[in-house]
Amino acid sequence: MKILIIGGSGTISTAVTARLTLQADTEVFVLNRGNRNEELSLVCEKEAARLGLAVKPPAFVKGDSKDEEDLKKIVDSLLSKGERFDAVADFIAFTKEDVERDVRVFRDKIRQYIFIGSASAYHKPLGDYRITEGTSLANPFWKYSRDKIACEDFLMNVYRTEDFPVTIVRPSHTYGERSVPLGLHGAKGSWQVVRRMIEGKPVIIHGDGTSLWTMTHNRDFARAFCGLVCNAKAIGEAVQITGDESLTWNQIYGCIASAVGVPLKAVHISSEFLTLAGKLPVSGTPVYDFEGTLIGDKANTVVFDNTKLKRLVNGFYSEIRFEDGVKKTVRNILSHPELQSADPDFDLWCDKLIEARNRTLDFLKA
To answer: CATH 3.90.25.10 region(s) of the chain?
Structure first.
């Protein structure tokens, strides 16, 4: 099989690429700008060692997939006359213009095109907390989600009218070993929240922390994804890939604190208030746009029904419990200082918000 990965260095795509390279009789090409390919090669080596298999790194192709002419030249150089890619997965297609370009370039040159959608596209507010692929798509709170919906609409139309062989994959909150997954963090990622835990400071949890959420380890995602690659039954289908656990946000933050080795000091603040407060600069701190990520996504209780995925991928189930996966993530981050991006602005914002909340409580108690 000949497979092209566009992107390949993100949380999801790194794990997928590493898994695909270990499949027999598979050539994997990774097209990107080459900024993190050395790191990707190390991930491939690590995954091969973990599974006791020989290392078979992907072939890296440097280029700009957003440049249509450049992309056409690269595709033609990788294919012999009359040859096709068995699958192309574009991990950095975010807008309708991106997928329109891909269709023009790959039409008649592939057997499967895999688009990475998003579970955040499901209708908000949710009519039912149980989500299947048949749940309607609409998210008035987050442009990112609306763009993904527009991509899906276009691709399903070209599948129906032109037989373009599309498979849509919808991930939810997927994490790896480079970053701790959270409900709320600043512009520089989640480390500052973990640092607050280590320093014994309180951390903010949106809502009352009892809504349900699903975390998916990227290795589990990759196993499921690879089962959809070159799977004829997946053509023309949308498939969500998530973990099987449903955890409250209190449990999620509790697992993280336990992994760090400290008690959780949680402060609960409503998602609506956090969204409003994020739009107001506090003592010179930046403005944060939490409307999409909270109101349009994480503030909602979600339980994913993965029946369709299990049917298409021979009874697939997720193997890595969040409690176990996040321990490995924390250990990896603590042993790699380069993954510890300090965010003093967000730290100050949290302090100010918690202080204001406590003053209000003191006033009401007086």
So the answer is: 191-214+245-302+323-358
For residue 324, the tally of other CB atoms under 10 A from its CB is 13
Tell me how far CA of residue 31 lies from CA of 36, 45, 118, in angstroms. Answer: 12, 19, 22
**CATH number of the domain at 2-176+216-241, please?**
3.40.50.720
Going by C-beta distance under 8 Å and a sequence separation of 6 or more, which residues neighbour residue 65?
A: 6, 7, 31, 32, 71, 90, 92
pLDDT tens, position by position, 198-247: 999 999 999 999 999 999 999 999 999 999 999 999 999 999 999 999 99
Distance in angstroms (rounded) separating the CA atoms of residues 12 and 323: 19
Question: What is the phi/psi pair of residue 135, to 5°?
Answer: -60, 135
User: What is this structure's pTM?
Assistant: 0.95
CA distance 298 to 71: 36
All CATH 3.40.50.720 domain ranges in the chain, comma separated: 2-176+216-241
On whether the CB atoms of residues 64 and 5 are closer than 8 A, the answer is: no
* Tokens representing residue 193 in the block: 């929240």
Query: Checking DSSP bridges between strand 113-116 and strand 87-90, what pairing results, if any?
Result: parallel
Q: Give domain 191-214+245-302+323-358's CATH architecture.
A: Alpha-Beta Complex (3.90)
